[in-house]
Amino acid sequence: MECIYCKGIMEKSTAPFYLDRKGYHIVWNQIPAWVCTQCGEAYFETQEVDTIQRAILL
Question: Could you give all domains of the chain from N- to C-terminal order, each with its CATH number?
């Protein structure tokens, strides 16, 4: 997989996810993701995005 920003190589790893919503600041420190070895950009797969969305709606 190639990073869309810098064309670096993506590796399976973890990445933080931050969210500010309705006056709350939510941080998950280690969400499974594809992370660029060159620029650090993270891409989350559908399963992780669905899990985050369900948690936000609760």
Answer: 10-57 (3.10.20.860)
